[in-house]
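Weekly sync notes, structure subgroup
Attendees: PM, AL, DS (notes)

Item 1: joint prediction request from the bench team. They want all two components modeled as one assembly rather than separately. Inputs as received:
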Amino acid sequence: MSLWTRFFNLFRTGSLEREFDDELRFHIESRIARNIQEGMTPEGAEEQARRQFGNSSRTRREMREVRVMKTSIGVAVLAGLCLCLVAGAFVWRRGGEPLAPSYYKVSDEGVVPPSVVREQKPNYTPEAMQAQIEGTVLMECVVQTTGICEDIQVARSLDPMWLDEEAVKAVQAWRFSPGRRMGEPVPVMVNIEMRFTLR
Amino acid sequence: MGRASSDRLFGTLDLLVLRILADGDLLHGFDITDRITQASQEVLKMEEGSLYPALHRMEEAKWLKSRWDVSNNNRRARYYAITAKGRKRLKELEADWARHVDAVSRVLRLA
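Output from the run, pasted for the record:
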C-alpha cells in the first residue's frame, strides 16, 4: 500500500472499518456454517466460532493499526510540532506560564464536568439479541471542547464480538456541552456506562 | 508477532501463511486457517482472529496482495495471493526455521 493510500485511509476509516467487518464476518459465518455441517446445534456452533476466533475488538484494533496508524503517527507528529510552535508563541507572550494539560479529569480542582446534550441509544445486533447478551459496557473518553467524545476506549467489556463496538459507535454520536475550567471550555476525561437490556 | 506467539504456532505464522499461499492458490483467511490446521493434523491451532492483522501486515510489506471476490457460497470474500517479494521472504523464513530446529536438536542431543 502506498504512502498516499495510507494517508487517504485516514479519511476513509468508515469504509475501511466496513471492509474489516465484512472480512471478519465472512470468517465467523464460515466457521459457524462448518460447525453446523459437522453436527453442532446453531447455538453451539456460534459459541465455538466466537471462542475459536478470540477477541474481535482486538483483531480490529490491530488491523486498524496496520492500515492507518502509521500515517496517523506521522500526522500526529506534524500536529505536535505545529502545537509546539503555537504553544511557544503563547508562552513567550504570557511570560512563560506552564502549559495546560491535554485534558482534565472530572476530579481536578475547579473543573465543571461536561454534560450530555444529545444521546443516541446503541443498536442491539441481531446476533447479540439471539445470544441474549445483557449488561454494561464501561468506556473512557475525552470530551473535547467541540462537544465530541474522542479516544473512546472500552474500559470494561461486555461482548467483544458485537456490543462493545455498538456502544462505542453510539458514544461517537453523542454530543456534549463541554467541561469548563475558570469559565473556559476544556477537554475532560469521562467514564460512560452503557447498559444493554432486553425487554 | 502479536498473539500468534501465545498460540501454539511458536511464532511461525508468517512462515506458515506464506508457505500455504506459495502453491499459487488464491485463498481467503478462513481457507488459510483451515489448511494450517489440516496440514498439521490439528497440532497447530490458533486463535483465528490473530490471522487477520498478520495478513494485513504482510500485505503492507508487499509479501501478499489481496482482492475482493465472490466465494463458493456466493459471498463476498477477501482473497490473498503471494507476491515475488513474498516468495523471497518465504525462503528466508524457511532457512531461519531450519537453523532454529537444528540448533534446538543439537541442545537436545547434548542434554
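Discussion: Residues 73 and 79 of chain A are 10 Å apart (CA to CA).
Action: AL to compare against the crosslinking data before next sync.
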